[in-house]
Amino acid sequence: MADNNNHLVIMAGGIGSRFWPMSTPERPKQFVDVMGCGRTLIQLTMDRFEGIIPYENVWIVTSAAYAEMVHEQLPEVPESNILKEPCRRNTAPCVAYVSWRIKSQCPRANIVVSPSDHIVLNQKEFRRVIKSSLLFVSESDAILTLGMQPTRPETGYGYIQADLSTPCVRNREIFRVDQFREKPDLPTAKKYIAQNNFFWNAGIFVWNVNTIVNAFRIYAPSLSDIFESMMSVYGTPREQAVVNERFPQCENISVDYAIMEHAEEIYCFPASFGWSDLGTWGSLLENSERNRYGNALIGNDIRTYDTQNCIVHTTDERRVIVQGLDGYIVAEKDGVLLVCKLENEQQIKNYSE
Amino acid sequence: MADNNNHLVIMAGGIGSRFWPMSTPERPKQFVDVMGCGRTLIQLTMDRFEGIIPYENVWIVTSAAYAEMVHEQLPEVPESNILKEPCRRNTAPCVAYVSWRIKSQCPRANIVVSPSDHIVLNQKEFRRVIKSSLLFVSESDAILTLGMQPTRPETGYGYIQADLSTPCVRNREIFRVDQFREKPDLPTAKKYIAQNNFFWNAGIFVWNVNTIVNAFRIYAPSLSDIFESMMSVYGTPREQAVVNERFPQCENISVDYAIMEHAEEIYCFPASFGWSDLGTWGSLLENSERNRYGNALIGNDIRTYDTQNCIVHTTDERRVIVQGLDGYIVAEKDGVLLVCKLENEQQIKNYSE
Asked: What is the C-alpha to C-alpha distance for residues A157 and A262, in angstroms, rounded to an integer?
């Protein structure tokens, strides 16, 4: 049963530069069938909320350049729910814009904010956690973050330190946040893991619209001023023109820095539903179906010989033969070919420039 | 000055399976700009004879499927000089057909027979040797083969053992052939090299038309009967229909087996003009311009990082990045991608099936 006050915000403005050439500025990875499953990452993201959030309550915030692609890939979402940022200003202005926009038409909305390019392997558990979280924020002024149970001392993620001693009374799976921690070095990450009260910050937030709007008013008043000032234009034909004028004045800042690290009523829902941010080829390899040689082969006709631990992603190619590689990325897209050691993938950003 | 009796026969029926995916049955390597120089191998082959053989004396023997491609690539050659084999029967029927065909219109022709997919780095020396050879055969009934001065104990080529003790009187660079030797194993190849009188068989033959026609009459009478019987149709509108009917009756045999290994008046012109049969990716790498890391990069925009001794051939791709490879082939063509160790290239035939 969909609650008509439940809303989903998908942040889809990223450019996925670490996944080049599969992901390009013209078509970032959220718009690509990364897993070779027939659905793009943004489609998979919306699919996960089916039956929880009605399509008319799904909001996509993206850059103007990607709006048409969003509409093509998510035709169920009303075009007026695709919010177009005139420029990139990180996540705080993005979240502020969509929050005021939703408030203008649904002042009692409960909102899940989700990245557009992550994957979740255990849908059932994910949906249970989301429903439980939406119920929780509908009855409280909590800012709720999902904390992923870590499975390794990952240095590529931020961490949430929770106070596990006193669970919330109304939902005993939810705990107060002690601190947000930035991406740690390896010894620190190992220490975090050993302590059991550290969770990966998945960038998935749940709150009611008044909670987040008030948090902006308190912790980021310059942003709240901008979006408050546009109350009379949201949902009108003038909206885009006014946003185009005012949005560029926003500070370039993440929602984590602007709000999370300052707010007091912040809670964490530790969860474990096979999440990955798919930020790197290595994480795609880990999350893809691998054959007995440890290869993930995503494409039409890929044959390997004497090849292990490789990810081959070549959906445009009719046929691919890979011989004698161990631990490599082989990726082809739109006339751009990459062959690169997995251990070297942090350099891909530089190669693609 | 072109001598109007001088003819060039380019054998262009091969399918180049060891060069997959650059070379495919639809467009074998002789029709590909393998070197990335703007000319295909068959174009480069004809270019080498400019000013020695007039275009109207250039003959191409190929399969019917490639005739249109030959005409597109060599528009200077009269279409009636493109002889179409209805089926593949190795080189002896090919040479016999074109020999009788030339004889029917030029009974005093001197002929160079050349493969279509080899390369020559020193054009000036090549042209000197060809001119000297044509002069030699115009005055004698010799079957002349060019013997390439070997630079390594190559096991992929056949060898010609020459009797260097007594040079020909009329051309002291030319010697009688003692024996043709098939592709040797490595110890044998090393022995050949050490002896100084062994040369690579480049498959380039020079003779006058009566010499070769008579050699077929003596050593391959079943072939000569077939092509002799068609004397009245060569150059007429009926030629192709009759050839289509009779050619399939030819024995499947190479000109080396049918003629060279039996004939008595066989001579060798040892020469050194940077020849390669470009039979393998490895030989292409050796014959291409290599950068200081030993890479041969043939394509529009190929960048390498931490990469040595690789051949990258990706003329269709807009951009290619290769990182962390040593001794590999990376080749892309028409939606088919190959990544393979150079030392494993003998397996490519199997991969492509």
From this structure: 20
